[in-house]
Amino acid sequence: MKQLYLLPLLAILALTGCKKDDDASRPGNLTIEKTEYTLDADEERTATVAFTAAADWTLSVVYDDAESSVDWLSVTPASGTAGEQTVELSATRNFRASARTAYADLSCGEQSVRLTVTQAASGDTNFTAQFDKAFAQELQKQDIIADAEHITPEDMEKIATITRLDVSGTYENRGTLTSLQGIEYFESLTYLNCDYNQLTELDVSQNTALTDLGCSSNQLTALDVSRNTELRYFVCFNNQLTELDVSRNTELTILGCNTNQLTELDVSANTKLETLWCDYNQLTELDVSRNTVLTELSCSDNPGDGESTFPVTVWFDNETEPAGLKVYSSSWTYGGKTITIDFRKAE
């Protein structure tokens, strides 16, 4: 009888033993060749991690030094599934005079691999020289920096976290800023208003988090917003722009580029556009047939065909204009001739 009881027990133990062996070889392992990465203080601040995971994985950042009170290293993505994977490590600028180190713990099942990320120091950078003097004085006035004549690493770290900045003037009291040199250090900026100043150029290529940009009533002859792919509100009226590329600004809901010198305007990629002001330009025609959520359109005071009509390609025609679309000024005088909007349904 004892043997009868022992046989099932031995079978159970054997199965249990097999299960443990299976677990050891089951997904949960990581294959990665490189675990140490070095990033520059300013320019080359990203690195790509390649690895293979046999199961779901996560990646978390760990700091162990006193100067890392603000998160400076991000990982994208921070988790994933089994297979060959790539993750991007990205650091904010290091304004300190010393290098800094962070760790990224890559975990898969019960296995964990620590990645070491070291970022070089900024050295003896003269931060004050990186800013236009008048712009720096405005930042001091707003208590963003302590001393416009001596911008410190601590000031720069604060600047890097600012999300909103308003340095605009008004119609009655124009601002005097001629340059926003240093705006590139506002890496977290989502809102920038610099209307009613005297800017001749504006570089927002490093402000990739921007969702709202107002730079109207300046003296801009060119403006590149190709890297500002999160823009939703963009108004640049009353400048001297001869061209404007918004093909990469697919999140735009409001675009105001009136009172410039644009000869063409392509908004075919801006399918979320609700409001478009492009009056007082040099447009001969306009195509808004792909902007089917458009509710406001102002396109007056453009030359059109130079004789009588301003062709606007839409999703309807003159007889079926939707009630939900508000059109400002369907006709106007240009060059001594009356120009009237001619809605033409897209084929």
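Second entry:
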Amino acid sequence: MGILISLLVGLLAGFVAGKIVQGHGMGMIANLVVGLLGGLIGGLLFDYLGWQINGVLGVLLTSTVGAILLLLIVSFLASLIGVKKR
């Protein structure tokens, strides 16, 4: 059951991050990947800063912050190498 909840939180976090950074969602698979990677990035960042957030909403916040950072970094790197958005 924990894996299912992690997937759902990752999907939601990726969707929210896509809406914030790009103005639209990216599709279910991309949202899931971004959300799950965002959870890892957010968890490492919050750990580094010494912040501890508990509960499903805390995990959603952590994942969303990490996913936003991931999308901003990818967007920045894409602009450096000249990749154009659709």
